[in-house]
Write a structure and sequence with these properties.
The protein is mainly alpha-helical. It has three helices and no strands. The two termini are 45 Å apart.
């Protein structure tokens, strides 16, 4: 069976990457983050429930528009594919 060499190479590469990640000191990364920001925890902006509802409505509207565009794209693709298949059928059936 083919492919054993490429799979062995992939496994070796994954092992080497994992070893490199283990060598990286996590404390050093935490210290770097603390030095840059001076904070150890995330701070989120406080917003009112009305603003939160407004943001949710905007996200829902964007999702609806995206879903509608996807449906239109799929329908047009299906029509175009059908037309191409029909034209190929006419071309080769004569």
């Amino acid at each position: 069976m083919g492919g054993e060499g490429s799979m062995a190479s992939a496994i070796l590469s994954l092992k080497q990457n994992r070893a490199l990640l283990k060598k990286r000191p996590i404390r050093e990364l935490k210290d770097l983050i603390y030095q840059k920001s001076g904070k150890t925890e995330l701070e989120f902006r406080k917003i009112s429930p009305q603003e939160l509802e407004k943001i949710k409505d905007e996200i829902r509207k964007e999702a609806q528009v995206h879903a509608r565009n996807q449906v239109i794209l799929y329908v047009l693709s299906a029509i175009l594919t059908g037309a191409i298949i029909y034209l190929i059928y006419l071309l080769f059936s004569a």
